[in-house]
Amino acid sequence: MVHGTLVAKVKVADLREKSQAELTQTLDQYKQELMELKVQQVASGTDTKGAKIRDVRRNIARVLTVMTQQARDEVRAQYAGKKYIPKDLRAKKTRALRRALTPAELSRTTVRQQKKNIIRARRMYAIKA
Question: What's the rounded Cα separation, in Å, for the pair 70 and 62?
Answer without folding.
Answer: 12
